[in-house]
Amino acid sequence: MSTARTSARQLGVAVRAVGVLTLALGLVYPLAVTGVGQVVANHQANGSEITVNGQTVGSVLIGQSFTDENGAALPQWFQSRPSAAGDGYDGGASSGSNLGPTNPDLAAAIDERLTAAAELEGVDPEQVPADALTASSSGLDPHISPEYARLQVDRVAAERELDPVDVRALVESAVEGRRGGVLGEPTVNVLQLNIALLELDT
């Protein structure tokens, strides 16, 4: 009998512990962290969204494609790097291509992108930087290299009938340096650059 009572007591303690922990860790803690996030870092907590004229056009943290419904590059915009996340920059399917460097499918994709980028920019294929040809490991990288942004200046300026000098200056002003001056490489956020391009074009 004592063994049965002990087991029942232990079961009761376990059930109460699960209930308390579920309440504390499944409800109170998430609500507290969400509340602190909204107060301390509201912009970041809400996805680092970018708005133009009161409308959300994207996020600082997630890239997007500037293409038509058929996937062809819209020449009046600076282009992002390729994406292997779903149909491209799908936040619910973050992933690289997972293809090894000797995979023939990856080699074929790079060759296709190289040809398309060189034709779009009107340059020799050797001038096309690597980030125009390969996707990031997340498939969501919103940045390109300054070299890739500079390569696109003449095409964007011509499409928008802008002075290439002004567009080039816009690119240089959009270059983000290494974090702390040490970590990573200089980058350009494509969405922010295209928003600044709109302001230059008006």
UniProtKB/TrEMBL annotation:
TM stretches of this protein: 12-32
Topology class, membrane: Single-pass membrane protein
InterPro entries in the record: KdpC
Keyword Chloroplast: no
Keywords, ordered alphabetically: ATP-binding, Cell membrane, Ion transport, Membrane, Nucleotide-binding, Potassium, Potassium transport, Transmembrane, Transmembrane helix, Transport
Subcellular location: Cell membrane
Superkingdom as given in the UniProt entry: Bacteria
Keyword Cell membrane recorded: yes
Disordered: annotated span: 83-104
Function of the protein: Part of the high-affinity ATP-driven potassium transport (or Kdp) system, which catalyzes the hydrolysis of ATP coupled with the electrogenic transport of potassium into the cytoplasm. This subunit acts as a catalytic chaperone that increases the ATP-binding affinity of the ATP-hydrolyzing subunit KdpB by the formation of a transient KdpB/KdpC/ATP ternary complex.
Oligomer and partners: The system is composed of three essential subunits: KdpA, KdpB and KdpC.
Family stated for the protein in its record: Belongs to the KdpC family.
PANTHER family membership: POTASSIUM-TRANSPORTING ATPASE C CHAIN, POTASSIUM-TRANSPORTING ATPASE KDPC SUBUNIT
Protein name per the record: Potassium-transporting ATPase KdpC subunit
Organism: Arthrobacter gengyunqii
